[in-house]
Design goal:
Blueprint (H helix, E strand, L loop, with lengths): L1 H29 L2 H18 L11 H29 L3 E3 L4 H27 L3 H19 L7 H8 L2 H14 L2 H17 E3 L1
Antiparallel strand pairs: 1-2
Helix pairs in contact: 1-2, 1-4, 1-5, 2-4, 3-8, 4-5, 4-8, 5-6, 5-7, 7-8
């Protein structure tokens, strides 16, 4: 009975995940990309509330936020150093493209915030806020990016490989949620990592 209940508890969030990612995939091919992103963000934010998941993890938590900032700085400095090192090796200079304020705001409100609410605040909480839960949700996170960014989109191997590699930053975001108990730590890292990754390039 206990095993059946446990399986049932895992099955519902998994079904919700499959339905959501399928819907996002269909929207990305049926309507404009900006409208699809807006509707997707709304759905990811709504699901924990509709399914009565615990959303207290969005409460004000200065310590968790500071942890998110500290971890972000540490990891992103290492990431930038690796990019710069590769640039030197390849004879290229690392540059950072200027991003518009509207694009930056979209990354926060339509990407980092809703994705963390759904993947960490809903899925990770349901699968267990443990190392196993972090790994399981990170696999689902990478799979979701692969399905929505690669399948039927005509993108090349570069975008598809980047989609799969989202597994690794997802581990960081999952660990931040697990260790701090607040979604804000992961939201901060998710947002800053996206901005650095998108703006970085070589000249």
């Amino acid at each position: 009975m206990d095993k059946t209940r446990k399986l049932y508890n895992y099955l519902i969030p998994l079904v919700v995940y499959v339905l959501l990612i399928s819907l996002i995939f269909l929207m990305m091919h049926a309507i404009s990309r900006s409208l699809a992103a807006t509707v997707s963000a709304f759905l990811m934010l709504s699901i924990p509330f509709i399914l009565k998941s615990d959303v207290r993890d969005l409460g004000w938590d200065p310590k968790g936020m500071l942890t998110g900032v500290a971890v972000s700085v540490l990891i992103l400095v290492i990431y930038i150093a690796v990019l710069a090192g590769y640039g030197l090796y390849a004879g290229k200079a690392l540059t950072f493209n200027k991003l518009s304020y509207s694009f930056i705001l979209i990354q926060l409100l339509l990407v980092a915030f809703p994705e963390e609410v759904f993947f960490r605040g809903y899925l990770q909480q349901k699968f267990g806020n443990t190392v196993k839960g972090v790994i399981a949700v990170s696999l689902l996170f990478a799979l979701a990016h692969f399905v929505t960014l690669c399948l039927g989109s005509g993108h090349g191997m570069s975008v598809c490989s980047q989609a799969v590699l989202t597994f690794f930053p997802s581990l960081v975001m999952g660990y931040l949620y697990m260790s701090t108990g607040t979604l804000w730590a992961g939201i901060i890292f998710h947002f800053l990592a996206n901005i650095v990754h998108i703006s970085a390039g070589y000249s």
